[in-house]
Amino acid sequence: MQPEAAIEHVLGLARQSGLAEVDVLVERGESLGLKIRDAKVEKVDQSTSLGLGVRVLLDGRTGLAYTERLEASALRRVLDEALENAELQDQLEVNLPDPARDVPAAEILQLYNPELEQLSFEELAEVGLEIEATAKQTDQRVVTLPYLGVSRESGEWILGTSKGTHYRQRANSATTYCGALLQKGESRKTGFWFWQMRDWNRAEAAAIGPKAVKEGTSLLGAKSIQNCKMPVILDEYCAPQLLGMFFRAFHADAAQKGTSRLAGRLGEKIAGENVTLYDDPHIPGARGSSHLDSEGVLTQKLSLVNQGVFENFLYHVESASKEQRTSTGHARRSYNSGIGTGSHNLVMEKGSYSLEELCQQPERALLVTSLEGAAGCNSISGDISIGVQGFLLEKGERVQPVDSITIAGNFFDLLGQIQGLGNCYQPYLSKVFVPPMLLDGLAISG
Amino acid sequence: MLADQTIAKVLEHGLRQGADFAEVFIEDSVSRSLDLLDRKIDQINSGNSYGIGIRLLFGHESCYGYSSDPDPAGLLQLTENLARSKRGEGRVTPKDLRRAPVNDQHQIRLSPEKVGKTDRVELLRRLDQLTRSHGEAIRQVSASIVEKKRSMLIANSEGLFREDSRQYMRVRLSAIADTGDGPQGGAESPGVLGGYEFLEEVDLEKLAREAAETALRMAGAGYIDGGVMPVVMGNGFGGVIFHEACGHPLETEAIRKNASPFTGKLGQSIASPVLTAVDDGTIVNAWGSLNIDDEGNEAQRTVLIKDGVLQQYLSDRVGAAQVGVPQTGSSRRESYKYAPVSRMRNTYIDKGPDKIEDIIRSVDHGLYAKKLGGGSVDPGTGEFNFAVQEGYIIRKGKVAEPVRGATLIGKGYEVLPKISMIADDLELAAGICGASSGMVPTTVGQPTLKIDSILVGGR
User: Fold this and answer.
1) Statement to judge: residues A80 and A229 lie in one domain
2) Taking CB atoms and an 8 Å limit, are B68 and A224 in contact across chains?
3) A71 touches chain B (CB under 8 A)
4) Same domain, yes or no: A94 and A153
5) What is the DSSP letter of B235?
6) Residues of chain B positioned with their CB less than 8 A from the CB of A67
7) Beta-sheet pairing, B40-58 with A443-445
8) Under an 8 A CB cutoff, do B43 and A37 touch?
């Protein structure tokens, strides 16, 4: 069965069973990926994935079930299972939202570029081979290129509900990435670069090899530094990663369940005046853009922090109903998961400094270009204790590559210790836009 | 799961396109999860995953595709598309498929299907109560039961045709405590390759006590002063350090790309002579065990390091051929959506001669990392990082006050020679490992051991 027909089929079965509140989410994806090694296409991955998730709401109880088969028998079974699951659940007072009115056409979000579908296997292969060749030529210290790939991917999601919501949105992108392992004496470093866009630009997509190599070579010979406190600059790639690790504190359900440090702090100053943070679901082309959330609620631009003052939590239907208010349109779900909370496109307003100018602000500072894993970040307490790599700066000049160190502090304290913000975002497809930041108060161990 | 005839046709079609080897992997999985959060049964989800993965090998080059649509014409078309960059003359003919039985080493005593969902709901509520009984400072509890039955069929052009199923059961518990200095967590998550008997036999009181005590101790803890110091690593999940820092770089997936510090080191001393490490896929009902791997080979016990000397890599079909080592039954994938590669199963550092008391006593000033959280590694450089979930200062040979916010940073090949003492209290712990073939259940483990010096991140 085709996805649209499958949704109608499930909703039809639900009607016959007297179920008034059912929603059905279908996700479909297609991708073609190539991995390159030794001047050959070493691996080709081609896939079509499909999944359908059903949510049944019965007297305020929710039941979920999913299937990757769209035959009639599987659809019957998935609805029955969702119903059975609902009967066991505790009441959560969730009601299916009414269909949103005046939903703009999905196309105005510019998430899908039909031309990308014409991107041939041959062209992807040529670009991959060019990345490999140019990366190897860049520096003789390249040991190997263990991660080198090119791909194009597309996906769509369709939401249908028994109350009449029907929404379909699709998106696509092309990606190239290159990881280079470099060695100089005993020092081994991995340099990584990627390109991901919706408008195919062959020259840019193919230009990442030398960039990856340079990322790695610049860190060769890195050393630790002594325990100290000094200003830390996170570049435009690390800053969004750090915010992403702690952002769940802005979810209303986290606050309601006692796992957000921001609970009870609405209207208070939680950050410096230079911090303004909002969620904008309607940025054309941005990865998280959408007119409806995954419960069918109309999305809206939402201020989270305005000049340091905490203004809003993110809600979905369930967390909103607990506080007798309406959802802010921040439900997130995939066909095989339950409902969670999530931002669309998170934006921290830029500052005025270029990264170079930001680096020149302190006399001596640490520029962080790589965060090593998220395990050392406790999203509930806000504690940060994480390995980093980067450069020791003196008067803005990179005087020494640095590794084998950790930075430590607390995210919620850091919000008040941002000394300056950069004027750029990372340039590729994204849904978290945070500029480089200069931070005070982090402890460095080495 | 798919007609034998269709499987044979796909394999034949693959070889006709010039492939040297063709493989069909069919999976039909049933999953169920029940989550309790904030004293309520918060989510119950169940589902069915189904798909067919087709792999063609042209020498060491591979093409992989998958679909959830069993239509034979579509699968033949996918096979053709996969081979389009390689198209050549068919040189090899497929061997007739021979159905070979799988000897089930990991039997299920109580099928999860025979137990009602209400039993699971009651178990979660009991866990919630037991955990909260450790005091008012326990502010939040979440608990879940995750189960999955993977049924799969693997057939290849060399005539292999095997069917197997794996039943997984796991319980996860997380407690959050706050005594005024901000919330801190403790978590336990044991699991088995087995049936519902696991949930009947697991010691719920112990689980609740351990999660609650970790959270409570950390809630009252101060921050550690970072620096380079000796670290005593606790047993069980502490083995994640070996998994990340040494296990991944010993997979042929890293070795074959010359992207591991251990490339070319077979037979050489890479660790302290007190260290022996094993990756064993045959431990009965262990979370990371297998009857057969995802290429259809019997699971094995693989000694990685013996008395400090590197013995073997973990390999899959392509990795073994490229590196020139035997296959070790270690080929794994999360689902039909991934081509298989060499992965760990149940990986542990073997027990040693020392006693935990003697190890602690040998440290003048250092960290006792009793429980570790997660971590990650760059296999190419060996650089790793781990969060310490429950840590204590060791002062003058005694375990002293708890400390929070500790992170361990280092390079695997530098740390291995610094392991100087290993205790006799080997324990295994269930985890989920992510890599290029997806998330797979793996066990980590070790006895309590001492690393003479490592960087501890703190304040």
Assistant:
1) no
2) no
3) no
4) yes
5) S
6) 47-48, 50
7) unpaired
8) no
